[in-house]
Every structure is written in C-alpha cells, then in structure tokens.
Amino acid sequence: MPKAEKDRKIHTSAFVFWMKDARPNIAKPGMSAAEVAKACGKAWKRIKPEERAQYDELAAEDKKRFDAKHPKAPKVVVEDKKPKRNKSAYMIYNDETRPRFLEQGMTVAQAMKAAADEWNKLTPKKKEKYEDLAVEEKDRYDQEVIEHYQQHLADQKLKIAAAKAKMAANSNQAED
Fold first, then answer.
1. pTM passes above 0.70
2. Which of 10, 23, 41, 169 is surrounded by the most beta carbons within 10 Å?
C-alpha cells in the first residue's frame, strides 16, 4: 500500500479524481502549482453535469471504502463534575418573577428588564426573603466545592500512586 494511501485522513473528492485526469491537459510548462490549481478550479466550475457525474460516482465509492476502513470513533462525553454556581438574591427573584412576565407575552429581554425594575423598587424588607435564600444557596455551593475538591484530591492521589507503581514496575523490568 502506498504511503499516501495509508496516511490519508479523508476520502478523495470528485474534484481530486477529475483533477488527476485533467491536470496534464491544463498544466503548461513553467506554471506554478498555485497557477495550475487555480486554472483547475476554474475549469471544474465549467464542467458539464454529465461529465461530473462519473467523478461523483468515483468519489461516492471512495467514501464508502474509506468509511468502511475507518469507522467513526464514538464521541467521548466528559462529565462536568464541578458544582453549579450559587445564585444571587436578584437571580433567585428573577427566576421567580420572569415566568409571570413571559406569560404576558413579553420577550425574554423585556421580561428581564421588567423584573429588574421591580427588584429595584422592592423595599429592603421584601428583599430580605431572597437574600436569605441566597445565603442558603451560597452555603450549599461552598459545601459542594469543598466536597468536589476533596474528591479531586483523592482521585489525584490514586493517579499518582498508580503512576509510581507503573514506574517501579518498569524499572524492575529494565533491571531484569
């Protein structure tokens, strides 16, 4: 198998198949590779659909061959384990009142503005309820952050211990 075939990262396009056939007719002595490529691109745009169809078929066959040889790897989903940030008193109020404004037919931006206007008009006594909820939310977040980092440290210690054991095993094999 030629090296170029082995290292290809994508299937061959119809344009590339066509260019293999047309390049000798388009390239003139003394033309740079960029000039040849530009001339090929212009000629490809003018090609008739009937002529192009054969190259599209070749490309489709090559794509099938390539896909069979290189199956797509499954996507790895990385789970974000960080705790969710705490909400401020205003955000708790906003979450509570925004649906009421949206039911009135306001856009999200209008609902946010109306909620902000209402928040600014609230008395400190009425804001106290939301500030208390925000303190509870902050305590929850702080506790989750502590737990998260303790778990992270434990995971790191396990990884370090495994790496040290692997290094020790490798050095023992090298000595043998």
1. no
2. 23
